[in-house]
Each structure stands twice: as C-alpha cells, then as structure tokens.
Amino acid sequence: MSTIDKLTQGYSDFRNGFYHENQELLQKLGSKGQSPKVTVISCCDSRVDPAVLTSSMPGDLFVIRNVANLVPPYEEDTSSYHGTSSALQFAVCHLEVEHIIVLGHANCGGIRSLFAPDGGTAEDSEFIGAWMRIADKARKQILEDPSLATQEERISACEQRSIQISLDNLRSFPWIADRISQGKIELHGWFYDLVAGKLSQLNETDSRFYEICD
C-alpha cells in the first residue's frame, strides 16, 4: 500500500468509524461553528499532535503549529506576513479562548538548528534561520550557563527555555495583555518528552517544569 493509499484508507476508516460514532457532534460543529476554550501553540513536528496527546475531540482545541512552537514578539508592521500572530488574533479576539498553551517538546529539530556550526543560516535553511532568531535569547542564556557541560544538555535546556521566551512574547500583544489583566485569559507552558511520554508544566515562579501526572 502506497503512502497516499494509506491516507485514503485512513479516511475511509474515519468515515465509517469515528465520523459515524460522532456524527451529531461533527455536524453541529460544521453548521454552528467552533468555540474552543483553548489555543495550543505547537511544533509542526509530526510526532507531537496536541489533540492526540490530550485525548481531545474536534472543536476542543484551536491549534497553531510552526517550527519549534515559537511565538514572535508583537509587531505593528502589517506589511509583512504574520501567520502565527494572525492565528493568535483570531483565537483571542474572535474565538475568545480562555487559555493559551505553548507546547514544546524534546528532540526538536528547530531548536537543534540554533546550535548548528553554521548558526542555522545555510542556504537551505533561509526561512528556518530567520524564524529561529525568535529563540536566540534562549540560546544565549543557555550558552552562558556553566552547569550545562555537553551540547545535548544545552539543546535540551534550550527546548524548555524557549517556551518562556514565547510566553513573554505572548504578553507583548496588547489584546492578550489586556485580557490577562482582566482575568479573561491564562498562559501555560508545557513540555512533552517524546521518549519517556511525560508531560510537564512550567512554573514561572521558579522557572522549573513539573510533571503533570505520573
């Protein structure tokens, strides 16, 4: 079976299984629109699916995916393309979500590129390199930490540190900052260990991640 045949067979299984079993819910979502309470900013890594990870149903999560689950700082310049920012604006201002989760993960290729010998500026990484500069502050903080002895330790630490950078950048959006001050929205930093299958949550008070469940 080819890769595409596998997908079409998967759709057939979905149609005859999940869709049939949840037809009322899916038709309601299709006719009345979505009203999720949670936005998840996730990496586009194929191994990390927020809906699968949280056992969520269609309509539960508004998912924004990009390389390394990064949030850029707020910019007033609208002449450029702002995919993640526009999705955030739709989620916050139109869907009125109540929670934003930045979901990072272990073994992230985007974060690893920050530590590449060429600095992630190779020709075949022209877009990735520019995008990853969002996390450059995290990289610099990691490089200044003498407790991290190996490259793998630094990369792993940066995967988590970059989540804090994205949370800080979320607060730079005025319509997010206003809703935080009004108690209408909460920010969360999560980290998923692919190998161990462990999900942890950031405590911003002590900058440490604590496992959500054991």
Rg, Å, rounded: 19 Å
CATH architecture of the largest domain: 3-Layer(aba) Sandwich
Helical fraction: 40-55%
- Give me the secondary-structure category: alpha/beta
Oligomer: single chain
Low-pLDDT residue intervals, each spanning 5 or more residues: none
Classified in CATH, the superfamily of the largest domain is Carbonic anhydrase
* CATH class category name of the largest domain: Alpha Beta
Q: Within the largest sheet, what's the order of strands?
A: 2-1-3-4-5-6
N-to-C terminal Cα separation, in Å? 38 Å
Report on this structure.
The protein is of the alpha/beta class and about 210 residues long. It folds into two domains: about 1-30, no CATH class; about 35-210, Beta-carbonic Anhydrase, Chain A. It is built from nine helices and six strands, in the order H-H-E-H-E-H-E-H-H-H-H-H-E-E-E. Strands 2-1-3-4-5-6 form a six-stranded mixed β-sheet, covered by helices on one side. Strand 1, helix 3 (about 50-55) and strand 2 form a beta-alpha-beta unit. Helix 7 (about 135-145) crosses helix 8 (about 150-170). It is globular.
